[in-house]
Every structure is written in structure tokens, then in C-alpha cells.
Design a protein that fits this description.
With 239 residues, the protein is α/β, with parallel strands linked by helices. The chain has two domains: 126 residues, Nucleotidyltransferase, domain 5 (2-Layer Sandwich); 87 residues, 2-Layer Sandwich (Nucleotidyltransferase, domain 5), CATH 3.30.420. It has eight helices and ten strands. A five-stranded mixed sheet has the order 3-2-1-4-5, with helices on both faces. A five-stranded mixed sheet has the order 8-7-6-9-10. α1 packs across α2 and α4 runs parallel beside α6. The termini are far apart.
């Protein structure tokens, strides 16, 4: 089974072309203002190098969040369009679970943290002792201190912290968690689209695919535009 996978939900975007559990091609690059314009050319380049056409792809998948609102929308829209054009199914996967996929068979729980800005993090906790991560604490968004207090109450074992939020708030994590905090090498903090293909393959084998219109972003909190709308409504009501 050929799969195209995209993760454009963080500052480091990635695209992968896989065949079952084998990586055919994968690219990681900095996500910037040209992200949307770059996704399709990167996919076309991978297909050409592999001697495949888009019609040979059996499944399309992407990170649906949480993460950058703009990045998540770009990935979802691209996968929706490709799946719709080819009549193939698609699958969404969690950005946090994707980071946890960097630690298969880990004996310690893994806590992916993504910088959500506004002094908050997107966070979850996973059991990664099996090839695919299983959630221990559900995805949430809150201040890092509040989350770490919640985490301390939930587990008394060392925890692996990963993701750009773990990098930004490393000092806070160390102060709150002490010797319980474990940090991986720098290259384990970014998600890899090829790991997303493994999550999608598992979903496909369990009949959990989606039609394009059902592939939706998971933001966990309102966007800047929604915040602005709420502020405007509150302003009108206070007059």
C-alpha cells in the first residue's frame, strides 16, 4: 500500500512517501510563509523519483493538530484535495502522537509538548512500550506549570519530554519535575511524516479511514480570528 503523509503542524514540516512499512522518500524542512505552495511540488518530486503517479497512492494522511492553525489547515486542505481528486480514503493523526512515535518500545512514558504560544502548551502523555503509542493523559492545552502539576499527580515515574514545547520550557520542566524529567537528543523533538504513515496504516487496517470532507482539524482552542470575534462580541455587550 502506497501512502502520502504530511505533517505541517509545527515549525518543522515533513512529507513522506511510504510503501506499507517501508519509507520510499521523506523530506523535513522549515515551515514558513511559502508552506502551502511547497507541499504539492514536494509530493510531485517524491512521486517522480519513485516512478509513481498520484493515482498509485492508496491512502492520504496528515497531522490534524494540535499545532499551528495555518500549518494544520494547509496540511488538511492538501490531503483533502488529493484524496478527493483520486477518490482515495484519508486518515488524520494527532501531532502529539506523532512526536510520541519517536520513542517506540520506550520503557518510560512519553510527554509530547508543543509550544501553543500565549504561554501555553499542547500536551499529552503516552505509553510507548508498544510500537504505537497509547494515551495515558488526553490531549489538552494549558500553561506549562499547570500541566506539569497535573502530570506530577498522575505519574511518579520518570518521564521523557519531547517537542518544541519541551525545548522552550525545559527550565520550567526541570524545576517542577526534578530528576523525573528526561530529555532526548535534539533530533527527537520533531515529528516525522513517515511515522504518521504508520499511524494511518494502522487505522486503515482497522477500517478507520475517512472521506475527505470528514477530515477535520483539531485545534483544542479558538483561533486568533475566533478570539477577536469573541472580544468584539464582549465589547458590544458591555456597551
Amino acid at each position: 500500500m502506497h501512502i502520502i503523509s504530511i505533517d505541517s503542524s509545527t515549525a518543522i514540516a515533513s512529507i513522506a512517501l511510504t510503501s506499507d512499512e517501508t519509507i520510499v522518500a521523506e523530506a523535513l524542512f522549515s515551515a514558513n510563509k511559502t508552506l502551502s505552495a511547497r507541499l504539492i511540488p514536494e509530493i510531485e518530486r517524491m512521486l517522480a523519483a519513485a516512478g509513481l503517479t498520484i493515482d498509485a497512492i492508496d491512502l492520504f494522511t496528515c497531522a490534524v493538530g494540535p499545532g499551528s492553525f495555518t500549518g494544520v489547515r494547509a496540511g488538511v486542505a492538501t490531503i483533502q484535495g488529493l484524496a478527493l481528486a483520486t477518490g482515495k480514503p484519508c486518515v488524520g493523526f494527532s501531532t502529539l502522537a506523532l512526536v510520541a512515535m519517536n520513542f517506540p518500545l520506550a520503557s518510560l512514558p512519553v510527554c509530547p509538548l508543543l509550544d501553543a504560544r500565549k504561554n501555553e502548551v499542547y500536551a499529552a502523555l503516552y505509553d510507548c512500550s508498544a510500537p504505537l503509542p497509547a494515551p495515558i493523559m488526553e490531549e489538552c492545552v494549558m500553561g506549562p506549570e499547570a500541566f506539569l502539576d497535573k502530570l506530577s499527580a498522575a505519574t511518579h515515574t520518570p518521564v521523557i519530554f519531547a517537542g518544541d514545547g519541551a525545548l522552550r520550557y525545559r527550565q520550567v520542566i526541570t524545576e517542577r519535575m526534578g530528576g523525573q524529567a528526561r530529555f532526548p537528543s535534539p533530533f527527537h523533538h520533531a515529528g516525522h511524516a513517515a511515522n504518521g504513515a504508520l499511524l494511518a496504516l494502522h487505522a486503515y487496517r482497522n477500517s478507520a479511514t475517512l472521506t475527505p470532507e470528514r477530515l477535520l482539524p483539531v485545534y483544542l482552542r479558538p483561533s486568533e480570528a475566533e478570539y477577536a470575534k469573541i472580544d468584539q462580541q464582549n465589547t458590544r455587550q458591555s456597551r
